[in-house]
Amino acid sequence: MNNNGIKKIVLAYSGGLDTSAIIPWLKENYGDCEVVAFVADIGQERSDLEGVEQKALSSGASSCYVVDLREEFIRDYVYPVLQTGALYEGSYLLGTSMARPIIAKAQVELALKLGADAVCHGATGKGNDQVRFETTYAALAPHLKVVAPWREWNLRSREALLDYLKERNIPTTASLEKIYSRDENAWHISTEGGVLETPWNASNQDCWVWTVSPEDAPDQPELVTVKVEKGKVTAVNGKAMSPFQCLEALNELGAKHGVGRIDIVENRLVGIKSRGCYETPGGTIMVTALRGVEQLVLDRDSFKWREQLGLEMSYVVYDGRWFAPLRKSIQAAAESLAEDVNGEVVVKLYKGQATAIQKQSSSSLYSEEFATFGEDEVYDHSHAGGFIRLFSLSGRIRALNELKK
Q1: Residue ranges of the chain with per-residue pLDDT less than 50
Q2: Among residues 126, 175, 345, 358, which is most buried (max CB within 10 A)?
Q3: Is 302 known as a binding-site position?
Q4: Is 65 annotated as contributing to ligand binding?
Q5: Catalytic residues, which ones?
């Protein structure tokens, strides 16, 4: 294969089966080029990072860089999306979608620093991640060449990848028994494959990793107090913490009570439907708290606008357009709305549910004087008649016209 003048490639490396095979494949098919492994620490299981550098070197990488992106990921990617209220197709909290642009951005930064000619990812040709990686590459460093092995090689199965590594005496902890495909970061963990490939199959215990089954969760509810400032969670149970620390604390509480599970069939960008089980315990609590404060402070039209922003943002993020002007424009509008989204919410965690049961805000538009069903002195009921007459005027005129006919 012609290597197109590529001498150094920076690979987004996880230490899993695919990227372990990619390193020797690149060296064999791109003129024995230098392969640098880049590992993004975005809050995945610590055991996944243990020994990852040695694993990369054993596979043929010249060096391996592990970069801690945990705080930046939650602060600069997750929190901005939460401000918009984005939910892809009504339920998915975009855990994988938000992680890809920060990984690709840090990968590009390393490639530029090291003077690399190309960047490489291990996403398949069927999924969304190839788009998310490559739109980021294009936006930040369009001159870098992109290598996508899954679109080039003839290795089409887990068995083929294992055989490929075995032939080259490259050690791997992967096996044929691993039937699920998982993606994990601080925000969520997803599970695909196995029994989930048939939508009529119910998910089993193996499909859930972080959270206990709601049926097995504690029989007593637990209350957690969440502080919100400008549409961002800043404290849990009275303790001010960084975004990542807030998420860690809420993940632990939510997982214990089985909070944050969804089992969905979604529409991938490439046109394929896929089924997955997603666990986002802390994130679900955060969303519950944020929406609780919004209910107090956003007027009807502002809330409607925020919902429209969230819908649009869900597609922008899912489709990998993080660095597009559209995402920045939506974000600017959401940040403006979030100026008054300040308050405190008590969330009850019980048997898989997170419910806002108490909420308060200094910016609240809720007035007990106006909302009461008891006697009040601030609202004249007779005023509603004139309002209704004007509100229904066009319908009245249309009906009168019909009578004339």
Answers
A1: none
A2: 345
A3: no
A4: no
A5: 18, 100, 129, 181
